[in-house]
Design a protein that fits this description.
Layout lengths: L6 H9 L10 E2 L2 E2 L2 E2 L1 E2 L8 E2 L2 H15 L3 H4 L9 H11 L6 E4 L2 H12 L8 E5 L4 H13 L4 H4 E4 L10 H11 L3 E7 L11 H10 L3 E5 L18 E4 L13 E5 L20 H4 L22 H17 L1 H25 L4 E4 L9 E6 L3 H9 L2 E2 L1 E3 L3 E4 L8 H19 L2
Parallel strand pairs: 4-15, 7-8, 7-9, 9-10, 10-11
Antiparallel strand pairs: 1-5, 2-3, 6-12, 11-12, 13-14, 14-17, 16-17
Helix pairs in contact: 1-14, 2-11, 4-11, 5-6, 8-9, 12-14, 13-14
Bound molecules: pyridoxal-5'-phosphate.
Length: about 425
């Protein structure tokens, strides 16, 4: 499609947008009395208006029924989390039984590593990306140390080539082959949080498994953003948070995927608790653990209903819209943002924007601001553009297709240009 950087053109794209009514389903913060242009849905998604109703429902049941709410609430609490599995499975391309909701992301990755990182004397290496999200780095280091191993020896980081901002699949495959029999686990962020690069999960999963390793994915920046086919790709396990593109609220519950080949087995090492045992015998309070035949076997505690409820509200919206329509809009919206950036770059002399996100991308564009710096970022924030800043000189722009509009992209371009001119005049 050929674009134009005009209000008219952006308005026309909005008028043709099949998802345009969903913008009004979200609460937007305001700056200077105007709704913000929100580029940080990759960090914390906006609040859906319907979420309040889901939380109020739980609060009312608790108030009116107290303990009886476990079984007699409109949505009984004892199996409330099961309502999330089917719609969530669609979002990640899994079978319903392969998906569960529990805890938070880093906690879940730790718990999944208990099952799927089983180092031996000769096979103990973990392959991850260099400069992985800090929480993931701390997790790898502490897991390795907990097994009595040396992080410098056991953790292998995938490097990018000098001067490049992205990883090449060929380099990753070469590294996997090189470690070979020594490789126990591959665990990478499916979409890199810094650059927005989407990894070739199908190919990397197959390569890791071909040398005998298990392969897991941290999908924090992938879920609700890109097309996932975890079952078809034969991924061993994965986990994600729900507060980024999934719009479920700050620090909210995490989802996990466990490949069906590991389900309904008692021989899998796992940290266990009562919510992972079979439902029909759970309340007999028997001493033996009898695992649920699905990913719920990894559940330890009874579900935090007040955080699962907003996740259910969000999934209701994903169910209505579907990933296909979201991805379709995402592609046009992100391409339009890219176009506007190039236009403003061409119109201004003292700036040079380098989009470091490769063509394998979701909605995020990470932009290196050559010739500009922190003052431009501050100007954007003061003028109602909510974005984020990463060292050394990168802003990340993630126009979430659920609620961002084409006019937002146009308005952003205008504010960006004014910001650059304002720096010159200082
Ligand atoms: C956001 C994010 C996290 C956050 O972890 P929490 O346990 O939810 O605090 C972890 N890993 C990656 C790659 C992320 O992007």
């Amino acid at each position: 499609m050929s674009f134009q950087n005009t209000l008219n053109f952006a308005q026309k794209l909005d008028a043709d947008d099949a998802l345009r009514k969903y913008r009004n389903e979200f609460h937007f913060p305001k700056v200077n009395g105007k709704e913000v242009i929100y580029f940080t849905g990759n960090s914390l998604g906006l609040q859906p208006k319907r979420t309040q109703k889901f939380i109020d429902g739980v609060m009312a049941d608790w108030k009116n029924l107290a303990v009886e709410g476990h079984f007699y609430a409109e949505k009984p609490w004892w199996d409330y989390h099961e309502r999330l599995a089917a719609p969530l499975a669609k979002v990640v391309g899994a079978k319903t039984k392969e998906v569960s909701v529990m805890n938070t992301l880093t906690v879940n990755l730790h718990l999944l590593m208990v099952s799927f990182y089983r180092p031996t004397k000769t096979r103990y290496k973990i392959l991850c990306e260099e400069k992985a999200f800090p929480s993931d780095q701390y997790m790898f280091q502490s897991q390795v140390k907990w097994h009595g191993l040396d992080p410098d020896d056991a953790i292998v980081e995938l490097k990018k080539r000098d001067g490049e901002h992205f990883w090449r699949t060929d380099d990753i495959l070469k590294k996997i082959a090189e470690i070979g029999d020594g490789l126990a686990l591959v665990l990478i962020g499916g979409v890199n949080y810094y650059s927005g690069q989407v990894f070739d999960m199908r190919t990397i999963t197959a390569a890791g498994q071909s040398v005998g390793a298990t392969v897991g994915w941290d999908l924090a920046h992938a879920v609700g953003n890109i097309d996932l086919k975890l079952n078809e790709w034969n991924v061993d396990f994965a986990a994600w948070c729900s507060y980024k593109y999934m719009n479920s609220g700050p620090g909210n519950a995490s989802g996990i995927f466990v490949n069906e080949k590991y389900l309904d087995r008692k021989d899998i090492p796992r940290f266990e608790g009562w919510w992972g045992t079979k439902k029909n015998t759970r309340f007999l309070m028997k001493p033996e653990f009898d695992p649920m035949p699905n990913a719920d076997a990894w559940q330890i505690s009874n579900a935090p209903i007040l955080s699962v409820a907003p996740y259910l509200a969000s999934l209701e919206m994903f169910e209505e819209v579907g990933m296909k329509a979201l991805i379709q809009k995402r592609n046009t919206l992100t391409a339009y943002l890219e176009y506007v950036l190039h236009e403003i770059d061409a119109e201004t002399e003292n700036s040079d924007f380098e989009i470091i996100t490769p063509k394998e991308r979701g909605c995020q564009l990470s932009v290196f601001l050559h010739g500009q710096g922190r003052p431009l970022f501050d100007y954007l924030m003061k003028n109602g553009v909510i974005t984020d800043w990463r060292e050394p000189n990168v802003i990340r722009l993630a126009p979430a297709p659920f609620y961002c509009s084409f006019v937002d992209m146009y308005r952003f371009g205008k504010i960006l240009k004014q910001g650059i001119c304002a720096q010159v005049n200082q």
